[in-house]
Amino acid sequence: MRRMNGMSARIAPADSALAPEIAAQLKRDDDGLVAAVIQQYDTKEVLMVGWMDDEALHRTLTSGRATYWSRSRGEYWVKGETSGNVQDVKAVSIDCDGDALLVQVDQHGPACHTGAATCFIAGGPLPVTA
């Protein structure tokens, strides 16, 4: 991993080891990222949403551990690397538009950094008035 000022530097899509046929399917945002919806593989519960660039997706597919690009910290991170709450990857799918990924995992421990089982429990429901 490249380091810059103590942080891991983003790896450009052209420099990533992601298979070209997969990279060609991705429709990235202006920051080169794709939303990744993380789902518990057996219950189908949505756990969290993360962001991946080509390199994070490559690392996820080849290591079996969910890897993301942290927009706030500006570095790659492997879920559970420090907390122990790892995500073992079972399957990854791309949506029909290529702008989102579904990552099915076996979550060990809480998925949310707050300690909640999911980030959507931690965030809470919004009122629907329709």
From TrEMBL:
Residues making up the signal peptide according to the UniProt record: none
Cofactor: Mg(2+); Zn(2+)
Gene3D superfamilies the UniProt entry points to: Phosphoribosyl-AMP cyclohydrolase
EC number of the protein: 3.5.4.19
Annotated metabolic or biological route of this protein: Amino-acid biosynthesis; L-histidine biosynthesis; L-histidine from 5-phospho-alpha-D-ribose 1-diphosphate: step 2/9; Amino-acid biosynthesis; L-histidine biosynthesis; L-histidine from 5-phospho-alpha-D-ribose 1-diphosphate: step 3/9
Cellular compartments annotated: Cytoplasm
Cofactor stoichiometry and binding remark: Binds 1 Mg(2+) ion per subunit. Binds 1 zinc ion per subunit.
This protein's UniProt keywords: Amino-acid biosynthesis, Cytoplasm, Histidine biosynthesis, Hydrolase, Magnesium, Metal-binding, Zinc
Domain of life: Bacteria
Residues given in the record as Mg(2+) binding sites: D95, D97, D99
GO molecular function, one term: phosphoribosyl-AMP cyclohydrolase activity
Complexes and interactors: Homodimer.
Known role: Catalyzes the hydrolysis of the adenine ring of phosphoribosyl-AMP.
Family recorded in the similarity comment: In the C-terminal section; belongs to the PRA-PH family.
Protein name: Phosphoribosyl-AMP cyclohydrolase
Organism from which the protein derives: Epidermidibacterium keratini
